[in-house]
């Protein structure tokens, strides 16, 4: 039986790819989309949705009330995403979130709502399987190389910095690495911010340029050696296998899971 899916953010770059992926997968069925800037006259902006007669709703409440769905995918912005996910989970629609920029308190609140309603939710800082492995390898390496810096690079339309992938990488590294202040104790930033953001002594540098998609390098330094773990997404299609994987697995969850790495081996 096909999994009925609602997608929020069908006009975005990720949303466009997700619409194409879902409509081309035999075990997935796109039943509606949510776009708060939609109106009936703009259906021509959605050629795939128009051809398949997929309804596009401005109001998420109306969408979730009108359409029977198994899974909701949100690929919007943090402010809208939190509201969408809250409504979906409370209506017992399992939810997959690819929107980055949610605060820790928002994630904790969604986790509580998910648990209360016994309705699964997956928040994935990155859907590319290679990026998930990069984060896991970094966690392993940090046990032996405590000196580490992260350089993440994304397109210039990305709203949050550092990226959700970088934040998740830092969280994973902190699980195996003791806090440490890196660099010379008397170092000075001639230009403020030159050394990047810092979390638990880990330096994070964000690059935003046109032409980029999603890239991250985690650089470890040790006595007489360095180790670099790098991942590059050069096309947003690289994220779709992870989106499909999340949709197929969230069906069996009754609570919130943060990061695809937690379900890869299940």
User: Helical residue percent?
Assistant: 25-40%
- Averaged pLDDT, please? 92
Q: Mind describing the biggest β-sheet?
A: 7 strands, parallel
Query: In percent, how much strand structure appears in the residues?
Result: 15-25%
Order of strands, main sheet, comes to 3-2-1-4-5-6-12
Q: What is the CATH level 1 assignment of the largest domain?
A: Alpha Beta
H and E order: EHEHEHEHEHEHEHEEEEHE
Instruction: Work out the radius of gyration.
Output: 20 Å
> How many E-type strands?
12
CATH topology of the largest domain: Rossmann fold
Distance between the termini: 21 Å
Summarize the structure.
The protein is of the alpha/beta class and 266 residues long.
Description:
This protein is of the alpha/beta class. It has two domains: 3-123 and 237-262, Rossmann fold (3-Layer(aba) Sandwich), CATH 3.40.50; 129-234, Dihydrodipicolinate Reductase, domain 2, CATH 3.30.360. The protein has eight helices and twelve strands. The chain has helices at 13-24, 47-51, 60-66, 78-90, 104-117, 129-142, 164-174, 240-250, and strands at 3-8, 28-34, 56-57, 71-74, 94-97, 121-123, 147-154, 197-199, 202-208, 214-222, 225-233, 256-258. The strands form two sheets. Strands 3-2-1-4-5-6-12 form a seven-stranded parallel sheet, sandwiched between helices. A five-stranded mixed sheet has the order 8-9-7-10-11, covered by helices on one side. A hairpin with a 2-residue loop joins strand 10 (214-222) and strand 11. The longest helix has 14 residues, at 104-117. Residues 3-127 form the Dihydrodipicolinate reductase N-terminal domain.
